């Protein structure tokens, strides 16, 4: 018996369409494009077809390992070229199985880029936005949450007030602390001068300070604003329960990523003990992992980065699973999601009753120039495009003006996330 790596390659046929189509449309090219108009490498996949001008775009952004994703896209070419672009389920299933060892953010992002691009083509062929291909809209617009973060509690509250004035009714709050600060908020150098690592992050200080942030927020912002918070994976299961119970009086909409993936098996225990809804998922790297979290009863909101789990196709299935289990969606949507990914997020948001809230990022004008059709925010909401496909295109000339640099910024930052004793912490 031979194993896949021992199997002779001679005589293996070319990848061909397994059934006839009513037209001769074929995928003619699949290629990655990397651009960084905000300094963050955004990876998109461009799929071209045998019909001149009929192309599709998909988000494949894994900004920390963008070169690996761009390289992985090359492996999709022989599996996709020559196929009919309408065979989305078959093509993406083939790609998932073809590497034998599957899953992980590199392969899933490459697959996601192809998957979303094929949906974009499907919409353009039909002359419809993607949301009309999957049952149509269930809501007029998508409420967003924005980030208010600063070095002190009072500065954070001031930023939150500005967001509320701009129309947001959901606001994520993060306040700094001595040393490296807290996630998403600055610190002060040398915060722990008697410690081996003076610029560390102290979990005890974090657990003591965070309830004060939300007490002040309720005092200033009142009861009509939904408040959110991101732990960013830094607590043990017991610490997560302590924090959530301390935040109970302030009625948070959710607390995000309370523990690292290594502790995900403990999430049902944490959720059962927490009076605050638990949102988890941006570190998931396969749709199976996401489904397991939903079915295990460990989360209240699914926060997956949809390009890291394979794209729009598996995300739709997860939305349906959420609907039947009482879980809501809150897809990951910061600056390291391309505008194409945002359009896919919004399409999911408006086509499922499981929707909870959507994370937002307000792109500057240079991103809109690279990606014409980039969704715009108005009064804390996004309204889905009525253009065919995703409604987002790419200007390759503009994209070429912003090549990604070689600075591993995230790696350098994560290397500094340590406790005051010098021990490395989940960033």
Order of helices and strands: EEEHHHHHEHEHEHEHEHEHEHEHEHH
Compute the CA-based radius of gyration: 22 Å
CA-CA gap between termini: 45 Å
- How many strands appear in the DSSP assignment? 12
Summarize the helices and strands and which ones pair or pack:
Blueprint lengths: L26 E9 L6 E8 L5 E5 L6 H9 L2 H4 L7 H11 L6 H22 L3 H4 L8 E9 L2 H13 L4 E6 L27 H19 L4 E5 L6 H10 L7 E3 L10 H7 L4 E3 L6 H10 L4 E2 L9 H14 L2 E2 L9 H12 L7 E2 L5 H6 L10 E2 L13 H5 L8 H6 L13
Parallel strand pairs: 4-5, 4-11, 5-6, 6-7, 7-8, 8-9, 9-10
Antiparallel strand pairs: 1-2, 2-3, 4-12
Helix pairs in contact: 1-4, 3-4, 6-7, 8-9, 10-11
Keywords:
427 residues; alpha/beta; nine-stranded mixed β-sheet; three-stranded antiparallel β-sheet; 15 helices; 12 strands; 36% helix; disordered N terminus
Structural features, described:
- It is a single chain.
- With 427 residues, this protein is of the alpha/beta class.
- Helices cover 36% and strands 13% of the residues.
- The chain contains 15 helices and twelve strands.
- Strands 4, 5, 6, 7, 8, 9, 10, 11 and 12 form a nine-stranded mixed sheet that branches. Strands 1-2-3 form a three-stranded antiparallel sheet.
- Strand 7, helix 9 and strand 8 form a beta-alpha-beta unit.
- The protein is globular and about 70 Å long.
- The model is unreliable at 1-8 (pLDDT under 50).
Short recap of the structure:
With 427 residues, the protein is an alpha/beta fold.
